Amino acid sequence: MKKYVSIILSALLIGSTFCTPGIQANAATTNNTSNANLLNTYGKVFGKVGNILNASQISDPNAKSAIKKEYNSVTAENEMKPDAILGHSANVIPVAQAKALGYYIPDNYSESTVPKLNFTTVDNMLKFCFDNGLSMRGHTLLWHSQTPDWYFRSGYNNNGGYVTPDVMNKRMEFYIKTVMNHVFSSKYGSVIYAWDVANEYLHAAPAGSDKATGWQKIYGNLGTKPAFVKQAFQYAYDTLAYYKLTNKVKLFYNDYNEYMEVDNIIKLINYINSDRKVCAGIGMQSHLSTNFPSVAYYKSALQAFAKAGFEIQITELDVGCTSLSEQSKYYYDLMSAILSVKKSGANISALVFWGLSDDHSWRRNDPVYVRPLLYSNYSTPKEAYNSVLKAFSDSAYGTGSSTTKDSTNTSGTTQTLSDGWYYIKNVNAQKYLQVANNVGKAAQNVELGTGSGAAGQKWYLKNVGNGYVTLKSALGNYMLDVYNGENKDGSNIRIFNAYSNNAQKFALKSSSTNGAYGITTMSSNQTKALDDYNFQTFDGANVCQWTYGGTSNQLWIFEAAK
């Protein structure tokens, strides 16, 4: 989490025939490595492929242009850290005023004031992600660095003494719940899919040392059983429970040099979860260099965390080097290892890089291990970028460097359901296939939405022979339809006048997820399927056609409707 550089995420390219209505998908099939990018390769496998973003880059057109094709997830570089929200200097307000502002004040909070929190930049970044269909990792709530010292002192005053653990517990509850309440009560809060609750605890300077911070000065040295860290996760989890988000937003412990701290991290997370499971797993920062760690050493850490039952998110990846050719090989070997562990069953759910290009990297002034990223500048990919894509192509998830084999391991067998009315729920988003705005007319867009029972969410399935079905909307004589009957990744899904032609015929495919089916299209000869684009989870997320891989965003549950 040594932070310097960020990226900006923006809207996808404009177009009329592709994935989002009025928005063109940037991807071609992963079977063609010349058109592959991070989003249509790693994004399809891990669900989230991301990078960092800071507030200033939102208005940078070069950063926007560079990011369009590569990512679907953002991590705020600094804007969600405690000092960005609390401020470097204390600005306290009476508790009564704080309550009027909607702040969470814990029971038995004994102080007369709380800090006024600044959410302006947080809100801007959340809105940006929401408007551009991007997901976001919350980062971070509890950290010994970038947290002002006054936050730990009596009266929130730099000249006061350090407060007691009991007082600090209440302050921590106030801060965590107020921040999370603010985000999740916002119309933009749905972009959050994960949150780093505690960051780098195992690397905090011990109490009694010159570099000890307020957390250690108040709570002392607690090893792998820090009660205050466990309490922080419980506060955060309780907030998710309040908003009914415990199945949608995951909480993580995030750390660096994680491959050197495997045993301690496992002990720490198991302690955090000793009363109830509140921490999903480990955020592996992965600030690496070509000389250390070895790929084998890193892979062994991945395997250990997977064996411990943890969800794994790679959160801050970069690879410093002295030789670009060595870096290219390291990235290839590293990504091959990560994909191999994923294929073996590890729950790796995000791959996030720490910087858009070398000339913006926090490591650009390192005297030895510089140039750690996949682009040298916003528009120039490096050899390492191509190696990362080749690692995917050569993996079990790709097609190999020169072959075009089918995904027979994921396509499944054609299944038959009874004719009748159904609600159709996407496995990834846990939202329903619906006609936009509940309006029945030719060429009306189809999207995802929270279950409401509206007519626009009801579909009549009819078997029409040769394993194909049609899906007619309850809004009138309109059927689910692939735009122009195209056989392209990104072709939009809509309703259109019911003709029962090839563009309106679909085949249901079995999957390894019980009760879930892929909905492949006749227009693609069953090689493509209905796809929750970019694994989005918000209401209004678009549905398009994409090469079928059997991933959760391409699986659907049919619920009988009256």
Describe this structure in words.
One of its GO terms (biological process) is xylan catabolic process. This is Beta-xylanase. InterPro entries: GH, GH10, GH10_AS, GH10_dom, Ricin_B-like_lectins, Ricin_B_lectin. With 562 residues, the chain is α/β, with parallel strands linked by helices. It is 25% helix and 24% strand. Among the domains are: 190 residues, no CATH class; 152 residues, Trefoil (Acidic Fibroblast Growth Factor, subunit A), CATH 2.80.10.50. It has an eight-stranded parallel β-barrel with strand order 1-2-5-6-7-8-10-11, surrounded by six helices. α6 runs parallel beside α8, α10 runs parallel beside α11 and α11 packs parallel to α12. It is globular and about 80 Å long. The N terminus is likely disordered.
Summarize the structure.
The chain is of the alpha/beta class and about 550 residues long.
- How many DSSP E strands? 26
Structural class: alpha/beta
Give helix % range: 25-40%
Largest sheet: 8 strands, parallel, barrel
* Radius of gyration over C-alpha positions, nearest whole angstrom: 24 Å
**What general form does the structure show?**
globular
Question: What does the average pLDDT come to?
Answer: 88
**Poorly predicted regions:** 1-18, 20-33, 400-410
Strand order of the largest sheet: 1-2-5-6-7-8-10-11
Organism: Clostridium saccharobutylicum DSM 13864
Pfam families: Glyco_hydro_10, RicinB_lectin_2
Protein name: Beta-xylanase
EC number: 3.2.1.8
Based on the model shown, name its key terms.
26 strands, Trefoil (Acidic Fibroblast Growth Factor, subunit A), globular, 13 helices, 562 residues, disordered N terminus, alpha/beta, 7-stranded antiparallel sheet, EC 3.2.1.8
